[in-house]
Specification:
Elements (H helix, E strand, L loop, with lengths): L1 H7 L5 H31 L8 H32 L15 H26 L7 H34 L3 H5 L1
Length: 175
């Protein structure tokens, strides 16, 4: 009886699934509005486009960044659903999640992209009154550490999956 009750608590994760899905949807809608506004702005100011091309490019990079963040939230939503509710969810191979490590990797890659775009925004708006070197160093340190963490986790998880597929796991070696 108790194991069935505990096992059924996994359905509480539907709250996390819905939360990330709603977050993804809101970001997607807001970003679509931003895209339309940016396009209208470009059309209205067509005579000065060549002067403002860097601003326009940066604006569309920011818009793309929010779309990517929306996608990250969506993939996390799918992954949570797949891990806790139904592991037979028909998703493309690239969106399959087999562990929480897979979800963390998706999230961390999204964070790296957001940090890079955030620094690009600061660099573009830099008026030489403040020293952005410290911000750049801080962001690059975070990106470096996240990349290092991801590279170690990817190697570790690939090592485990290749060992289990080839039948060379440590437990089988001991037996």
């Amino acid at each position: 009886m108790l194991p069935k009750i505990i096992a059924s608590t996994r359905y509480m994760m539907i709250l996390a699934v819905l939360g990330t899905f709603i977050g993804s949807l809101v970001l997607l809608l807001v970003d679509m509005v931003n895209t339309v506004q940016a396009v209208i702005h470009v059309i209205e100011n067509a005579s000065t486009i060549s002067e403002a091309s860097k601003e326009i490019a940066l604006e569309f990079i920011k818009i793309t960044d929010l779309f990517l963040l929306s996608i990250v939230l969506y993939v996390i939503s799918l992954g949570l659903y797949e891990l806790f509710i139904d592991d037979n969810l028909p998703v493309p191979k690239w969106a399959e999640m087999h562990s929480l490590e897979d979800l963390k990797q998706v999230l961390l890659i999204g964070v790296i992209v957001v940090l890079a775009v955030m620094f690009l925004s600061y660099a573009e708006a830099w008026d030489k009154s403040i020293n952005i070197l410290y911000l750049g160093l801080a962001i690059s340190a975070v990106i470096f550490s996240l990349t290092y963490f991801l590279s170690k986790n990817v190697r570790h998880s690939r090592g485990l999956s290749s060992e289990s597929k080839s039948g060379n796991s440590d437990t089988e070696k001991e037996e």
